[in-house]
Design goal:
mainly alpha; elongated; 64% helix; 2 domains
């Protein structure tokens, strides 16, 4: 049987996860030799820039800088950010990204569907009003799918972590997934460029009809890569927060 997960009040070594309860901050971890002070002080973990309301920079700039940190340096971000903090601010950050990504992914899906209707299903086209319904429904459906998936993923992650003896309570996992939302942006941008670009080139007659096969292969490859990218960045967040003490 796996050992029970440490309590949130337990002090863990940020480097190896060893229990440090009762040890002086001036000492070193008996397991790995890392400084205990790093695990208990504010030297290592601070709230994300997005949550720093005392920062003089405007909110939009703090949002942009936090997004850049998460996308380009995910390990450094999750290693240096707090695991316990304002869920409301983290949720607001996530919803902004989910809205942007859902819009981009919805337009990409519409461009793909429009190509299919025009070049593949051209003998039984849908009425014109259906195009506008799809254009509005796809971003909304994408947003709902993302939010529901994140909630389910948070529950399952917390359950599996408890089963395996890791300290990843639901609140910590949910907060991490809220900031992980920034990783949907590059996926959505690539999808829009691929689907929208192919649709535009087909409409202007710059591609042969047979190019559709290569486009579908490319799209399938991007789906696989995107799934791997999102999972890898998700695991980076979980791995760097399971020993966090604040």
């Amino acid at each position: 049987m796996t050992s029970p997960a440490p309590q949130e009040t337990d002090i863990l070594c940020e480097n190896c996860g060893y229990m440090l309860n009762g040890l002086p901050p001036s000492g070193r971890c008996p397991e790995c030799g890392d400084e205990i002070d790093l695990s208990v002080s504010q030297r290592l973990r601070k709230p994300p820039l997005w949550e720093d309301i005392g920062d003089p920079r405007p909110k939009w700039l703090r949002f942009f800088l936090t997004t850049a940190q998460i996308i380009f340096r995910p390990t450094r971000f999750f290693r240096g950010s707090t695991s316990r903090g304002s869920i409301e601010l983290a949720q607001r950050f996530a919803h902004i990204h989910w809205l942007i990504s859902s819009l981009l992914l919805g337009i990409a899906a519409w461009a793909h569907w429009d190509w299919y209707e025009r070049d593949v299903n051209r003998f039984t086209p849908l009425p014109a009003w259906a195009r506008w319904v799809m254009f509005l429904a796809l971003p909304i459906g994408t947003y709902l799918a993302i939010t529901l998936t994140i909630r389910l993923a948070a529950r399952l992650t917390a359950w599996e972590a408890a089963y395996r003896g890791y300290r990843l309570p639901h609140g910590v996992v949910l907060r991490a997934l809220y900031y992980h939302a920034a990783h949907f942006l590059p996926v959505a941008l690539i999808a829009l460029i691929t689907c929208g670009g192919f649709n535009l080139l087909q409409r202007t007659g710059q591609l042969l009809f047979t190019a559709g096969t290569a486009y579908l292969y490319l799209l399938c490859g991007e789906v696989v890569v995107a799934a791997g990218y999102l999972f890898n960045t998700y695991w980076i967040g979980m791995r760097n927060l399971m020993y966090a003490n604040r």
